[in-house]
């Protein structure tokens, strides 16, 4: 009798461990996180590489105030509309959504035109762990205008500023971490071997997953007079504006240098040596980390590294920012709060198995 009870307890514990281990947390977009992607097919391609089962969770990693997550119906997903949202938007990042039911699930970012820029995800959840491909084929209607979106960016400008142009007043702004100025060497003639630096590499120019992303990217590059910066972004979703140090630190576009670049991709030629500062002036994108400071050296300089050391004053509020989004918590049962990590469940189950073994030994 005692042996039978011990066997049952052990069997239940093994099943419990297996079930906990089978549940998986999928980080949406992997290292890119939840943001406006470099290509509109980015998240569908990511979903294709993953398999989703009931009990799994989606982890949306984004900067609070720059993005959100809203579960919607299929028709709202295709039209980038929030009319038929399921529950309230998740506005605090990172946000976790439990996949409690099988079938197709649709998620968008309801901020501005982010959804139209490709910040939308459709996944197919299987009832078991059977692989079925996680992506849902997009509909041709996904390029329709959303029924409820924030005002788009200003109409595109054809003027491309060069470093050193005279400043002109511009649109509002926002932002986060702050670089310190460095000495500005005299500007020599541009080098014959110039380099075009794609800002952010494959991530492009967007609100990054961390506010140190672009400063870390700059550290890995060396910038010389005559080189160019290529800002790759979706027209209407972002812009590029060169500013002085104080405006960079405050995420303020009041003292803009030259015109705002609103058409992506945008290229800026680095014609002078010294420290140059760039921000996105849309919404709170700058506060979310969409800002870049680079140190440009003369063409004959051997000093490496293009980043500027961050300044402690980088956390002060900008003088002009957009209203912060709602921090409401989802009400729908389909988007509940994140469950306890499966790793802790496995630990508990392991302890349970150990205790069961001890009980069995005592009974025998």
UniProtKB/TrEMBL annotation:
Keywords for this protein: Copper, Disulfide bond, Glycoprotein, Metal-binding, Signal
The protein's name: Cucumber peeling cupredoxin-like
Gene Ontology terms for molecular function: electron transfer activity; metal ion binding
InterPro entries from the UniProt entry: BlueCu_1_BS (IPR028871), Cupredoxin (IPR008972), Phytocyanin-like (IPR039391), Phytocyanin_dom (IPR003245)
Polar residues: bias regions: 299-330
Domain of life: Eukaryota
PROSITE patterns the UniProt entry points to: COPPER_BLUE, PHYTOCYANIN
GO cellular component, one term: plasma membrane
Signal sequence bounds: 1-22
Domain Phytocyanin: 24-127, 195-298
Listed transmembrane segments: none
Region of interest: Disordered: 128-194, 299-342
Feature: compositional bias, Low complexity: 166-193
């Amino acid at each position: 009798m005692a042996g039978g009870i011990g066997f049952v307890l052990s069997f239940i514990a093994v099943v419990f461990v297996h079930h906990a281990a089978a549940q998986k947390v999928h980080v949406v977009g992997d290292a890119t996180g939840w943001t406006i992607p470099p290509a509109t097919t980015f998240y569908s391609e990511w979903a294709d590489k993953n398999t989703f089962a009931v009990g799994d969770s989606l982890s949306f990693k984004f900067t609070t105030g720059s993005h959100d997550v809203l579960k919607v119906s299929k028709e709202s997903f295709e039209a980038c509309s929030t009319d038929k949202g399921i529950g309230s938007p998740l506005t605090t990042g990172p946000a976790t959504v439990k996949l409690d039911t099988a079938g197709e699930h649709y998620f968008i970012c309801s901020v501005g035109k982010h959804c139209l820029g490709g910040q939308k995800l459709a996944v197919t959840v299987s009832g078991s762990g059977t692989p079925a491909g996680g992506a849902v084929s997009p509909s041709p209607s996904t390029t329709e205008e959303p029924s409820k979106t924030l005002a788009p960016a200003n109409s595109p400008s054809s003027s491309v500023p060069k470093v050193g142009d005279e400043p002109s007043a511009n649109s509002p702004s926002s932002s986060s971490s702050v670089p310190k100025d460095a000495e500005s060497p005299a500007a020599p003639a541009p080098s014959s071997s110039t380099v075009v630096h794609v800002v952010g590499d494959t991530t492009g120019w967007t609100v990054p997953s961390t506010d140190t992303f672009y400063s870390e990217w700059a550290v890995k590059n060396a910038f010389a007079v005559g080189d160019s910066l290529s800002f790759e972004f979706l027209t209407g979703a972002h812009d590029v504006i060169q500013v002085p140090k104080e405006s960079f630190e405050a995420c303020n576009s009041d003292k803009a240098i030259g015109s705002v670049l609103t058409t992506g991709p945008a290229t800026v030629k680095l014609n002078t040596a010294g420290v140059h500062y760039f921000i996105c002036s849309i919404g709170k994108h700058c506060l979310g980390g969409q800002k870049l400071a680079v140190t440009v050296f003369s063409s004959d300089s051997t000093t490496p590294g293009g980043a500027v050391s961050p300044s402690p004053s980088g956390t002060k509020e900008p003088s002009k920012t957009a209203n912060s989004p709602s921090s409401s918590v989802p009400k729908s049962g389909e988007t509940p709060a994140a469950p306890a990590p499966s790793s802790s469940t496995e630990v508990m189950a392991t302890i349970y198995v150990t205790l069961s073994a001890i009980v069995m030994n005592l009974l025998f």
